[in-house]
Design goal:
Layout lengths: L10 E5 L2 H5 L1 E3 L3 H9 L9 H14 L4 H6 L22 H9 L3 H10 L4 H12 L3 H17 L3 H22 L1 H6 L5 E4 L2 E5 L8 E3 L5 E6 L7 E3 L6 E6 L6 H10 L1 H7 L1 H12 L3 E2 H8 L3 H13 L3 E6 L2 E6 L1 H8 L5
Parallel strand pairs: 1-5, 2-6, 6-8
Antiparallel strand pairs: 1-4, 3-4, 7-8, 9-11, 10-11
């Protein structure tokens, strides 16, 4: 019988060099939101409300969830690394990420599967790839459908909440340094410069890993609130998917952006509508803003002026046109996160 590792033996130490710290960056990944939602159904790692939301989305998928079920095994789903490509830009779209996943060379797929060759999930996926050359395409389609079922029309408020988290941590990086940022991602991540210790519970990786200048990408997630995820191999930068600020959640972000009732009480229905519209659709002209909020152009301009004086809206001119967008403070107010 294989001896069970002790907690100490389950700690991975990742060695950062100066080059790795210089390549530390944040990114927002729609695919990370979907895969983390699909793999966080265990009662031990996620809240009951999140599990109910995930279950409801999978139920609505019906037979379209079959690519998930073919990979499903005991415990949470685990996707091969090529299913979650490293975000190449700060704001990659889901279509971009799914296209990158589909375009992964077969040799890279096999390398990723070999890393996890003892995992039942990855053995099933290797068999699936051998039997069905279009398995990756079908999985991409299922992920896209799951995204629609999970977030429906509420991706924009989720995106704004993720941006708010990145803005907050970027500010921490400039004001308090990299040590503070890496020390506050999650209780099971311990930073002791130049090493990051991961309490991963179980692992196939060696206890010490050298990044060797590949760098690291920090990706916030609203799907996970009680755990973290990692993408760790010998080819890519280290990716850490961490919980966004605990006061920012999908339900809270969506509810405040959709209803706007607390804002209505604070500033009135029309002014709240103007701010919420600019949070969801930045860069509107005064005429477009008036049409979206069913207001006269004069009224929309007046509300935008008041919001601008409060620091909630910013205005720019291009020729004779005037364009408005929400500021970071406006996003903070609408997402209900006073500490962002």
């Amino acid at each position: 019988m294989r001896r069970r590792n002790t907690l100490k033996e389950l700690m991975i130490r990742i060695r950062f060099t100066t080059a790795d710290l210089g390549r530390l960056r944040f990114a927002i990944s729609p695919l990370a939101q979907i895969t983390s939602a699909a793999t966080s159904s265990s009662p031990s790692i996620e809240t009951a409300s999140a599990r109910r939301r995930q279950h409801a989305a999978l139920t609505r998928l019906g037979s379209h969830a079959e690519p998930f079920r073919q990979l499903d095994g005991p415990g949470a789903w685990v996707f091969p690394d090529f299913v979650t490509p490293v975000p190449t830009t700060a704001l990659a779209t889901l279509d971009d990420e799914l296209a990158a996943m589909i375009a992964t060379p077969e040799s890279r797929k096999l390398e990723d599967l070999e890393i996890w060759r003892r995992s039942p999930t990855h053995r099933r996926y290797a068999e699936l790839l051998a039997q069905d050359p279009n398995a990756t395409v079908r999985l991409a389609g299922a992920l896209a459908r799951f995204n629609r079922e999970l977030f429906n029309d509420h991706w924009m408020p989720v995106l704004h909440a993720l941006r708010a988290d990145v803005s907050r941590r970027t500010l921490d990086l400039s004001n308090r340094g990299v040590d503070h940022v890496l020390s506050t991602l999650h209780p099971r991540l311990t930073w002791r410069n130049p090493d990051l210790y991961l309490d991963v519970r179980e692992t196939e990786f060696p206890p010490v890993i050298e990044l060797d200048g590949r760098g690291a990408v920090l990706v916030p997630s609203l799907s996970w609130s009680m755990t973290f995820g990692t993408k760790l191999n010998n080819a890519d930068p280290l990716v850490i998917i961490y919980p966004a600020h605990p006061n920012v959640g999908v339900a809270g972000a969506v509810a405040s952006l959709v209803s706007g009732r607390p804002l209505e009480k604070l500033m009135g229905r029309s002014r709240a509508a103007v701010l919420l519209t600019l949070v969801k659709t930045p860069g509107l002209s005064t005429g477009q803003l008036a049409a979206a909020c069913d207001l006269s152009i004069a009224s929309a301009s007046e509300h935008a002026t008041v919001l601008r004086s409060a620091g909630l809206v910013a205005t720019t001119r291009s020729g004779s046109a005037v364009y408005h967008r929400s500021t970071y403070l406006g996003v903070r107010l609408t997402t209900g996160d006073p500490d962002a």
